[in-house]
């Protein structure tokens, strides 16, 4: 047991042990009175001292009530008990059973500076009992007393040192545990604040995504519907002034084709307002169907691959990666003139990487014009999407060498 674990036992023994040890001392001393040669007056004196010691033990709790531990009252009671024990042991060595209580109560009743003196006085009493009684008679008896006293003091000093070391270790351990508890509390608070900040960032990302979708949709309407309607109006104006029916029919067919194309673009824009592909499936399945549908629509060979262990991602992360893939494929269909496109989704521990590669015409990334208010979504939009969730988009391309778009975002798991 550690010193801290012994402490309650010592306190309990200091309260009740003296009564038991005094009773043992009285019984053994009464039985050995004739053997040790106690006179009648010594027996009466012993009885008086026993009564005084019993009164001391009974009055000790009252005397120490409302007084600080190891204070003056406690010190006086300790040394008064030692004096009773010393005189009783002088009269009969078997009263050492009572005197030994000083070993167990010194650290409880005495301040630190008086512990060793108190133990030393108790050692004197015990040494006198161990040599057969006080005072020593003759040179040999005195020599034996000195030797026994030295052994007692050495043992007491050794065990006191061990107890002090154990106490220091217990205090250091308690301080370490308290520090760990404070650290754990601070860490938990930091984690809670982190979670709140994370939730706030996701809300801001959603709001930014809504605003970006509005800008993208406005740009798409301008690039597709508005231009289509302008073309239809122009064709109809030609029809109104056509010199013959054949010319009018030709321009009407062109206007009809433009109207069908604009209707398809309008449907596509509305469809892309929200990633419906993610409503019933995860990101890998949504990407797989998106790539397959794109390949069928364009006639270009399109392959999709997943590497690593797929995990259920947060909705915002999945939507961002799906939008980036759709825009990259749209750009490839419009500009790359590729024969083959490959899409790879990689789960790499704490991040997710989406790669879209084609073997098309390629371009010079440094020559790409800056995005304007009327411009399309394009590369700048893909980068903006990724940056909103602490990600990034890199583009590698050269004229005639194809294009590789890589989106790297943190792996944030589904929060439900």
Task: Enumerate the spans where pLDDT stays under 50 for 5 or more consecutive residues.
Answer: 1-7, 372-376
Q: Helix and strand string, N-terminal first?
A: HHHHHHHHHEHEEHEE
Our count of helices gives 11
Shape, principal axes of CA atoms: rod-shaped
- Averaged pLDDT, please? 81
Distance separating the two termini: 48 Å
**Percentage of β-strand residues:** 5-15%
Helix content: 55-70%
How is the biggest beta sheet arranged?
A: 5 strands, mixed
Q: In total, how many beta strands?
A: 5
Across the major sheet, the strand order is 1-2-3-5-4
Q: Name the structural class.
A: alpha+beta
Summarize the structure.
The chain is of the alpha+beta class and 416 residues long. The chain has eleven helices and five strands.
SSE blueprint:
Layout lengths: L2 H34 L3 H25 L7 H20 L4 H4 L1 H9 L2 H19 L8 H102 L4 H27 L11 H16 L2 E7 L7 H22 L3 E9 L2 E8 L19 H11 L3 E6 L5 E8 L6
Parallel strand pairs: 1-2
Antiparallel strand pairs: 2-3, 3-5, 4-5
Helix pairs in contact: 1-2, 1-5, 2-3, 3-5, 3-6, 5-6, 6-7, 7-8, 9-10, 10-11
């Amino acid at each position: 047991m550690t010193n801290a674990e012994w402490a309650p036992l010592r306190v309990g023994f200091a309260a009740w042990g003296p009564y038991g040890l005094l009773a043992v001392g009285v019984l053994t001393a009464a039985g050995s009175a004739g053997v040790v040669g106690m006179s009648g007056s010594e027996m009466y004196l012993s009885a008086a001292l026993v009564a005084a010691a019993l009164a001391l033990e009974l009055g000790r709790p009252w005397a120490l009530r409302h007084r600080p531990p190891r204070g003056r009252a406690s010190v006086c009671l300790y040394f008064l008990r030692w004096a009773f024990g010393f005189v009783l042991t002088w009269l009969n060595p078997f009263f050492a059973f009572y005197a030994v209580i000083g070993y167990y109560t010194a650290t409880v009743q005495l301040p630190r500076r008086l512990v060793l003196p108190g133990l030393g006085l108790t050692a004197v009493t015990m040494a006198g009992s161990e040599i057969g009684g006080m005072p020593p008679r003759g040179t040999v008896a005195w020599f034996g007393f000195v030797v026994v006293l030295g052994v007692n003091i050495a043992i007491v000093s050794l065990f006191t040192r061990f107890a002090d070391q154990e106490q220091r270790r217990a205090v250091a351990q308690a301080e370490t545990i308290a520090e760990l508890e404070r650290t754990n509390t601070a860490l938990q608070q930091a984690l809670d604040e982190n979670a709140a900040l994370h939730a706030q960032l996701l809300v801001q990302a959603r709001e930014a995504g809504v605003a970006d979708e509005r800008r993208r949709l406005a740009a798409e309407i301008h690039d597709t519907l508005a231009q289509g309607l302008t073309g239809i109006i122009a064709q109809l104006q030609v029809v109104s002034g056509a010199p013959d029916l054949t010319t009018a029919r030709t321009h009407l067919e062109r206007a009809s084709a433009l109207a069908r194309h604009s209707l398809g673009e309008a449907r596509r824009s509305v469809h892309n307002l929200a990633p419906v592909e993610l409503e019933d499936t995860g990101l890998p399945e949504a990407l797989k169907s998106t790539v397959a549908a794109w390949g069928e629509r364009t006639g270009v060979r399109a392959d999709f691959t997943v590497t690593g262990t797929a995990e259920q991602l947060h909705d915002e992360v999945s939507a961002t990666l799906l939008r980036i893939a759709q825009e990259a494929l749209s750009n490839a269909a419009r500009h790359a003139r590729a024969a083959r496109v490959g899409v790879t989704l990689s789960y790499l521990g704490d991040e997710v990487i989406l790669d879209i590669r084609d073997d098309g015409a390629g371009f010079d990334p440094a020559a790409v014009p800056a995005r304007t208010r009327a411009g399309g979504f394009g590369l700048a939009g893909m980068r903006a999407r990724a940056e909103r969730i602490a990600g990034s988009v890199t583009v590698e391309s050269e004229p005639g060498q194809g294009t590789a778009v890589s989106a790297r975002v943190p792996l944030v798991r589904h929060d439900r």
